[in-house]
Amino acid sequence: MAFTTRKSLLAKIREGDEISWDEFYSAYRPLILLRGQDFALKPTEKEDLVQIVMSEIFKGSREFLYDRSKGRFRDYIKKIISNQIARILRKRINQEVPLCDNDFSQINVLEQAWREEWRAHLMKMAMSELKDYVEPATYQAFILYGLHRKTSAEAAKFLDISVNAVYIAKNRCMELLKKIISDLEAEL
Amino acid sequence: MKHYTREELDCYRNGDMNLFSRIICSEHLKFCRSCHKLLDSLKEDDALLDELRGKLDRLKQAAGEANKLNRFPENDC
Fold first, then answer.
1. Could you tell me if residue A128 is inside a domain?
2. Does A78 share its domain with A139?
3. Closest alpha carbon within chain B to A169
4. What are the pLDDT digits (tens) for B7-58?
5. What value of ipTM does the predicted structure carry?
6. Measured between beta carbons, which residues in chain B are less than 8 angstroms from residue A47?
7. Which terminus of chain A has fewer CB atoms gathered within 10 Å of its CB, N or C?
């Protein structure tokens, strides 16, 4: 059972609930920007990409409802991002701007890059989900020791807990995180 | 035979165990497959944490660069 009653983005996608523009934007913007980077889009093009992908997904509404019959969510969003990148690149051809080196000819490299970006995105979502599943002190100990590379003694001192409690928090969070990542891999 | 917990093995590998306990743990690990396996799984967790740090940094960097450019729009002239 979740530690908080806030419904995560994952839970909403899983249960077919509506997702707000803001929530989706903050969760997916980094992924879309990274994908734009693979195609060496210019900064303004990358921002355009985020906006048009968002518009394509929300289609004028403030809420988005994912229809699971469309297949896996990762394939759905990848297709939308790819189509919009292709549009931007086609626009460049029309404007006689040369294409970047990372155009569609490097399919394998781009596929691998997408897999890594998607994994990064899943990890970010998993972290957000984890926060809802553990007590704030446990999460904080995990962040300090696990992510910010503080020593166990530093984290313990900062949080006024024992070194053993830091390790308990880290191991509890790692166990949950692996489970969440594996669930996300299977569901999205 | 007493087996070690994940937390105790974390203490062992990170130098948070006193010398005497450390020697005993080290001896135990030489013949206990179960504890050795647990120690290996902690190392796997370290690898996952490294990956997590790297991936989150990458996402943060991509979003950060874009935010920076939004604050200071580039001059195309």
1. no
2. no
3. B7
4. 999 999 999 999 999 999 999 999 999 999 999 999 999 999 999 999 999 9
5. 0.83
6. 66, 69-70
7. N
SS3 A172: helix
Tell which of A68, A96, A121 closes a domain: A121
Do both A36 and A99 map to the same domain? yes
Which DSSP category does A97 fall into? P
Number of residues written out for chain A: 188
Model confidence, pTM: 0.81
Q: Which domain holds residue A51?
A: 1-121
H/E stretch holding A127: helix A107-133
Instruction: Return the closest-CA partner of residue A64 out of A123, A18, A130.
Output: A18
Question: Looking at the partner chain, which of A123, A146, A164 has a beta carbon nearest the beta carbon of B55?
Answer: A123
All structural domains of chain B with their residue ranges: 6-71
B63 touches chain A (CB under 8 A): yes
A105 and A154 together in one domain: no
Q: Which two tokens stand for residue A57?
A: 């997904």
Specify whether A90 is located in the same domain as A146.
Answer: no
